[in-house]
Structures are given as structure tokens and as C-alpha cells.
Write a structure and sequence with these properties.
By secondary structure, this protein is mostly helical. The chain contains 8 helices and 2 strands, in the order αααααααββα. α4 packs antiparallel against α5. The N and C termini lie far apart (152 Å).
């Protein structure tokens, strides 16, 4: 029992015990008020032991949970079965001892649970201020107001430092998150730029292919036109020679003159003229 628990237990016991009903009952039971001497004398008379019988009630008996109820039921069973003797007395004593031990253990468990709960509550009330000097434990400790104020100031500074560290950690975490988002945005922009460049190169290659195809078609068409022109000129020359032979046979019989690149006449031998 500690001082911290005494007042709480005493207060609850006082509130339950000291009541107007209990005070009046105490005076009435002892015969003090109203006055009745027979009540005190009747307490001195020898009482007959109360013996219970198992067959008194039709319902099954309740399980004994206390020493008194166990003793009464054991005696009732012994009387009912006519088995009173040292064996029954030994069983009664053993049962009473076990029931008493059970009551003690239950009480101890209940008190231990309460002590643990109170200890947890006591530890949550406040933090240790650190007023004791660990290097001078054997000497008396004097806690002046100035020392208490200094310790409180130190604790406040430590708490502020912890809060500052926590805020810095949160800020660093947010900054890392912002940096990750910026890197992701830069990567997305770089990817989009690369895709645009690839699309532009692909369009340039397609345009170059189309230009080369158009150029080949133009060259082919120009060659075809040139061939057609040559064929047209040859046809015109044949027609001209044909008309000349018809109009002037002597001129047609003359050997054909040919010119070189410089415009000089080339006279072929007779064997090649025809």
C-alpha cells in the first residue's frame, strides 16, 4: 500500500460504509435505539448449527464459491449419506483450504491488475526533469527555484530542438518529393521532345523520299519526252526526204552529206554512200 492509493481506497470504503442507513441499523441491531436489551442477550445464546439438506430443493445445488458454502454443502451431503467421519472432515478441511486459497489468489490478481493500471497512469503523468546529479548521488540534493527554472528551460530547448528536427525532416521529405516530381516532369518533357524530334526526322525522310521519287519521275518523263521528240524529228526527216525524192529525183540521188561536230562536211566513200 502506498500513499497514492490510500486516499482513493479509503474514500470509496467510507462512501459505502458510512451512510445514514448503516448508522441507524447499527444502533437498532445492538438494541441501543430504540432500546431493546433482548437483542444483545440473544447474541450470547448458543445457536444450533444450520444443516442443509441436498434433498430440500428440487433444483440442482449451486456450485460453492466460498469456504462457508463449501463447508455447508459438504456437511449436508455427509448427513444425507450417513457418512460422518474423519474422511469427510479431511475432505471438508481440504475443500475449505482450496476455496480460501482461490479467494486469496483472485484477490491478489485483482490487486495486481489495479497496481499495474495505477503504475501506467503514474508514468504517463509527466516526464523526469533530470534534477538529480548522476555524479553526486550520495550527497543531498537541493532543488532551488533557479535550478528548476534552468532545468525547465533546458527541457524546453530540447523539446524545441526536437520539434525543429521534426520540422526539418518534414521539409526535407517535401523537398525530396518536389525534386522527384520535377525529375519526372523533366523526363516527360525530354521524352516528348525526343518523340517530336523523331517525328520530325521521320517526316523529313518521307519528304526526301517523295522528292527523290518525284525527281526520278521527272527525269523519266523528260527522257520519254526527249525520245518522243527524237522520234518526231526522225519521222519529220523521213517525210522530208520522201517529199524531196518525189519533188526532185536528181537531188535525192546525190549522196547524203554528213557533218561533224565542228560543222565540217564529211564525204563518205562510194561504197558507204548507199
Amino acid at each position: 500500500m502506498i500513499k497514492r492509493l490510500f486516499w482513493r481506497l479509503f474514500r470509496s470504503a467510507w462512501d459505502l460504509a458510512v451512510t445514514v442507513k448503516n448508522v441507524k441499523s447499527g444502533f437498532e441491531k445492538t438494541g441501543i435505539f430504540p432500546l431493546d436489551p433482548t437483542k444483545t442477550i440473544s447474541q450470547l445464546a448458543k445457536k444450533e448449527p444450520l444443516v442443509l439438506s441436498i434433498s430440500d430443493s428440487n433444483s440442482a445445488p449451486k456450485t460453492p464459491m466460498t469456504c462457508r458454502s463449501f463447508r455447508n454443502q459438504t456437511k449436508a451431503a455427509a448427513q444425507e449419506l450417513r457418512m460422518a467421519g474423519p474422511v469427510i472432515q479431511a475432505l471438508v478441511r481440504a475443500g475449505e483450504k482450496l476455496a480460501f486459497t482461490n479467494d486469496l489468489l483472485r484477490h491478489n490478481v485483482h490487486m495486481l491488475h489495479g497496481a499495474l493500471r495505477d503504475e501506467k497512469t503514474r508514468r504517463k503523468r509527466g516526464k523526469h526533469m533530470g534534477l538529480f546529479d548522476k555524479e553526486k548521488i550520495k550527497y543531498a540534493q537541493f532543488f532551488s527555484p533557479a535550478k528548476i527554472a534552468a532545468i525547465r528551460q533546458e527541457n524546453a530547448e530540447k523539446q524545441a530542438e526536437k520539434e525543429s528536427q521534426k520540422a526539418d525532416a518534414i521539409s526535407a521529405k517535401m523537398q525530396r518529393q518536389i525534386n522527384r516530381e520535377l525529375k519526372a516532369q523533366e523526363a516527360a518533357d525530354h521524352k516528348a521532345k525526343r518523340q517530336r524530334e523523331q517525328a520530325a526526322r521521320h517526316a523529313a525522310r518521307e519528304k526526301e523520299k517523295e522528292d527523290r521519287r518525284l525527281a526520278r519521275e521527272a527525269v523519266k518523263k523528260a527522257k520519254e519526252d526527249l525520245a518522243k521528240q527524237k522520234q518526231t524529228r526522225k519521222a519529220l526527216k523521213r517525210q522530208k526526204r520522201l517529199h524531196t525524192a518525189i519533188d526532185d529525183p536528181e537531188e535525192a540521188a546525190q549522196p547524203k552529206r554528213r557533218c561533224d561536230r565542228l560543222g565540217r562536211n564529211i564525204l563518205l566513200p562510194k561504197r558507204y554512200q548507199n
